[in-house]
Amino acid sequence: MNITVFCSAFVLDERYTKPAREFARLLGERGHTLVWGGSHAGLMGVIADEAKAAGARLVGISVELLSHKTYQGADELVTTRDLAERKAALLARADAVVVLVGGLGTLDEATEVLELKKHGLHDKPIVLLDTEGFYDGMRTQLRRMEAEGFLPRPLDELARFAADAAEVLDYLEGPSA
Asked: Do the domain assignments include residue 119?
């Protein structure tokens, strides 16, 4: 399975990097391909290194703006003109999307794939790894949107929140995936 991962390009505390490493290790051990932003920076580099060490194939989708941060060990590297083209390429290559901790770029990517799914433009599973309750606020906001009629589909059809790496992959590999 090609699993597109959105995450931070910043160096983060071990409480965030350890679960990300575990996810990347399991992804590789279970024979999946990591599709990600193609960077060696921060958490992106951590997951690429770990997934590669565990045997995963790496497909990086970089952007001209960040070409100086390109991960050199990718099996395949695509460079797009801009961030919008990059997001489209990341989704196009995905069988599933996993969102790890991240900042505004990660939030932008996550909300875009949710919006596209809401409109029926794809039906790929989306899972947010809710490390240390990082996405509690987002889950609360999405539940409020659902309760007040802002979502045309139930939130559980749009995305799933997982507590750990094994739960993410078990869901993606399960019979309903």
From this structure: yes
